[in-house]
Amino acid sequence: MSEAPSEAPSAATPEAVTHSARTAGPALLASLDPLLREWLPRQRWFAGKGRPVTGFTLVAATELLPVSSKLGLLHLLVRAHQPLVPVQSAAPHPADCYQLLIGVRETLPPRLAPALIGHLDEGPLAGRTVYEALYDPRPADVLLEALRARARVGELRFERDMRQEIRAGLVPRLVTSEQSNSSVVYGDTFILKLLRRIVPGTNPDLELPLMLAREGCPRVPAPAGWMTADLTSSDDSYVLGVLQPFVQGAADGWELALRELAKGEDFGAEARALGRATAEVHTALARALPTVTLGRSQLELLVAGMTERLEAATQAVPALRPYAPELRSAFAALADLAAEGSTWTAQRIHGDLHLGQCLRSPGGEWSLIDFEGEPSKSLAERRMPQPVARDVAGMLRSFDYAAHSQRPAEPGWASLCRAAYCSGYAEISGSDPRTDPVLLRAYETDKAVYEVVYEARHRPDWLPVPLAAIRRLAANDDAP
Ligand SMILES: Nc1ncnc2c1ncn2[C@@H]1O[C@H](COP(=O)(O)OP(=O)(O)O)[C@@H](O)[C@H]1O
Ligand SMILES: O=P(O)(O)O[C@H]1O[C@H](CO)[C@@H](O[C@H]2O[C@H](CO)[C@@H](O)[C@H](O)[C@H]2O)[C@H](O)[C@H]1O
């Protein structure tokens, strides 16, 4: 375990982080406004890509280190205003709220150059340079210290599980891989995920790992600390960040799958272990939180949602159109089963499961991470009980993705993994997902439709991967 280098700050005391910027906040934000308008849309985690930012509203401002001192740290929650896209214009759409950590210095040392937001000539920060503070070990340390100290700073609350020891002085480093949020690793011991687009209410990224820890499920790193904002202007609390034990030397399932594919090795044993891990998590969630039975009316709603998403996707990606009738019947087949009296159990699930959300420790143990669900959906939707087949379908699609990202594609590799994963799942849960092929096909189809839109928007080169699956699903030739 590494210790802080001598340039890191002495551990911040709760007193050092008790200065609230509520009154100075609007003036600070006004001076930052032009810089943030330019900087925010360039961030990987910015959710409103493709539309300019036209202004900001302050939700909360907290000085974690006084901005008047040599090194300041300003915590901001801001709403970013953007013009509405035509499809949204009928309904009011609240501007997205983002969590920002702004460092304030006179000059930036060269090592912090990539973190630069800009230099201010006017306003309360005139003559100072502002930057993304998470690149800087000193402000990052303030967050860990606040969690250790269970600090209350303005409207920010830092909490921890006292049963987990969090040592002072663990050296922070920002995770630089592509992420929807931002994470800082402390001394290879803990990882703090700071949510970027934040919403009020219970966030499954904290809720579910806490529940699973309480259930004694070892497949998910147990939260050691968490950060929330309890705003005086709102009844709801906002989850801002979660600290979890860092799985040292871990590789994610996607990297490992590609590595094995490149070596021509099969991944069956790992896929089976992943099936078992998924079922362990599902079993624990079903014990911890309510399950419900879905009957005809609920299935009709579910099928209507899938069909609507398909219609929207065929508008957005014309290449889907030739397959739409068969895909619609994949969904309709589910509604038909419900009409004949079939019912399904629904429970809390991961909600966005794929190989990239699975970490394997050097000892071969699998953990599941990132229980945030699909960030584009509302918290209420993400927290709804759903059939476990939805997570299973996500993983089955992921094996298919890995195999079809190869030249030439390796469909046999995918089939083996998909079957092994379902067998592993059945070993723990007692129920093999393949025994409900209509449900599984509907969920795989729904996911593949989502992927077609995702790839068309974000990675057009990848579009052939989900489109190939769409062809197989339309022909009902893709069962695991
Ligand atoms: N507990 C952990 N141990 C080791 N690495 C982790 C852990 N949690 C997350 N990571 C790493 O951080 C990355 C981002 O985490 P994730 O929760 O998926 O964030 P995001 O929602 O921003 O995508 C993961 O891909 C993984 O590599
Ligand atoms: O990063 P997120 O977890 O928010 O997920 C989004 O990006 C994923 C790609 O990074 C995308 O996943 C798709 O590609 C993966 C390979 O890169 C593959 O393993 C997944 O099965 C496939 O869905 C995901 O759909 C998207 O929401």
TrEMBL record:
It catalyses: D-maltose + ATP = alpha-maltose 1-phosphate + ADP + H(+). GO terms for biological process: glycogen biosynthetic process. Residues 252-426 form the Aminoglycoside phosphotransferase domain. Residues 39-136 form the Maltokinase N-terminal cap domain. It comes from the Bacteria. GO terms for molecular function: ATP binding; kinase activity. It is an enzyme of class 2 (transferase). It holds the Pfam family Mak_N_cap. Keywords: ATP-binding, Carbohydrate metabolism, Glycogen biosynthesis, Glycogen metabolism, Kinase, Nucleotide-binding, Transferase. Its EC number is 2.7.1.175. InterPro entries: Aminoglycoside_PTrfase (IPR002575), Kinase-like_dom_sf (IPR011009), Mak_N_cap (IPR040999). Pathway: Glycan biosynthesis; glycogen biosynthesis. Signal peptide: none annotated. The keyword Acyltransferase does not apply. Gene3D superfamilies: 3.90.1200.10. Residues 1-16 have a biased composition (Low complexity). Residues 1-20 are annotated as: Disordered. The keyword tRNA processing does not apply. Belongs to the aminoglycoside phosphotransferase family. Monomer. This is Maltokinase. It comes from Streptomyces spongiae.
